[in-house]
Amino acid sequence: MSIIEFRKTSKHFGDLKVLDEVDLDIDVGEVVVLIGPSGSGKSTLLRCINGLEQISGGDLVMDGISVRAGKKQLRLIRQEAGMVFQQFNLFPQMTALENVAFGPRKVRGASAAEARKQALALLEKVGLRDKAGHYPAELSGGQQQRVAIARALAVRPKVMLFDEPTSALDPELKQEVLTVMRQLAQEGMTMVVVTHEMAFAKQVGTRLIFMEHGKISVDGNPRDVIENPPSERLKDFLQHVE
Amino acid sequence: MQTDWSVVLTFLPQLIAGAKITVQITVIGLLGGLILGTVAGLMRAYGGRVLNAVAFAYVELIRGTPIVVQVMFLYFAMPVLTGLRVDPMSAAVLAIIVNAGAYIAEIVRGAFLSISKGLSEAGLALGLPQWKVLVYILGPLAFRRLIPPLGNQFIVSLKDTSLFIVIGVGELTRTGQEIMAANFRAVEIWTAVAIIYLVLTGTMSVALRMIEKRMRIL
Ligand SMILES: Nc1ncnc2c1ncn2[C@@H]1O[C@H](COP(=O)(O)OP(=O)(O)OP(=O)(O)O)[C@@H](O)[C@H]1O
Ligand SMILES: [Mg+2]
């Protein structure tokens, strides 16, 4: 059953065509890894799903709701599609616990006690229960990103969108974030991940999509596609990433 | 030259009464200016084309004209235009509201726009409406960045009230002028007036510095 449906979705920035009539169905439980050269439209594709970018043509349906249906519907979509950013974007004036409890409190309308309990459980899950009272500035990049994942999960989304979640991290900190993501995938979370971590793609991904110039140029099983790239350009690209 | 500092003591009650009026104009004016400035600043930062243009015109109009002209306009020209008479005190308060409001608008706009776009996106991505992002995420962050420039504006506005001598409000400078006209004790009286201003602005500085210290800038 598809939960995300791109229907000839286009996106322009002025004259620049960034998504070019993309057709794509993503099913519940899939872990889709998006790769492609810089500027090919990966972030834009992801950000159209939760309406951080407004689509310019075609349609895009997320969990049965069109991103064009209006502001209120867009907020419903966003509650069902959590997002994790390359730069973490934790709220600096809140502790880790407050960051994670924020969504349940202000979006789902949970009581303070209930939100706190949920937040602690999620921090436990990402291995940071002991950092609950710390401010983002007091955490390492890897820890911040794990808090950011917990914050997104706290709203209980059906889908998680990751935009290069480990690109801003030192190599030794990447693994702790990837471990959390792997665990999430094992629990059956539907995920769309922009990343250049090919080991993760092979191990965890159920599908690999290679984007070029706003179009999907390759779409297949990660292992097959990585081991036998169906196009010269993908082969080149993979050599650069490795 | 002979000085006689006892005249300061003699006229101290009058000077203090003047200082009270100065404080009154400043406090009420700045409270109004804060509200007006916040609204205009948010209109500049987040309003659509029309709201932004309205706020922009207001800010440019006020920043482009001297405050003396503004208060003269409010006191002498407004009654002619609207038929409503205002007393000097109201004109003075109104002038501070309108004048400080314009400068505060730019301060508020700057503080909000200096916050990284990513934080606002993180809030929106959770499913919050824009106004909640403003109130719960950007507002508290912007507030911390507002304090230093606001403190500066408060001190400027306090000193600007001395210009209202032109419409005859009995504030501190005007009081000094009146005492002077009667006894020609220029050195003593203007020294006393200057010191009272220093005490007022100094108190403001210390209070703001204390607030600043208690809040980390994030
Ligand atoms: N807000 C914007 N305004 C104008 N152009 C934009 C905007 N956002 C993205 N673009 C342009 O759209 C194109 C695709 O950008 P996008 O961020 O989706 O690429 P990407 O595949 O994520 O690249 P990267 O690997 O560098 O993150 C780029 O040429 C970019 O400059
Ligand atoms: Mg990108």
Give a written overview of the molecule.
The complex is a heterodimer of chains A (242) and B (218). By secondary structure, chain A is of the alpha/beta class. Chain A is 39% helix and 26% strand. Chain A has a single domain, classed as Rossmann fold. Chain A is globular, with a radius of gyration of 18 Å. The model of chain A has no long low-confidence stretch (mean pLDDT 96). Chain B has a single domain, classed as MetI-like (MetI-like fold). The radius of gyration of chain B is 21 Å and the shape is flat. The interface between A and B is medium-sized, with 26 and 19 residues. Bound molecules: adenosine-5'-triphosphate and magnesium ion. Residues 13, 16, 18, 36, 38-44 of chain A line the site of adenosine-5'-triphosphate.
Brief summary of the model shown:
With 242 residues, chain A is α/β, with parallel strands linked by helices.
Binned strand content of chain B: under 5%
Low-pLDDT sequence parts of chain A:
none
Neighbour order of strands in the largest sheet of chain A: 6-7-8-3-9-10
How far do the termini of chain A sit from each other? 34 Å
Percent range for β-strand residues of chain A = 25-35%
* Alpha carbon gyration radius of chain A: 18 Å
CATH class of chain B equals Mainly Alpha
Give a quick account of the main beta sheet of chain A: strands, pairing sense, barrel closure.
6 strands, mixed
Bound molecules: adenosine-5'-triphosphate, magnesium ion
Give the helix proportion of chain A (percent range): 25-40%
Radius of gyration of chain B: 21 Å
Order of helices and strands of chain B: HHHHHHHH
Oligomeric state of the chains present here: heterodimer
Q: What is the name of the CATH superfamily of chain B?
A: MetI-like
What is the count of structural domains of chain B? 1
Largest sheet of chain B: none
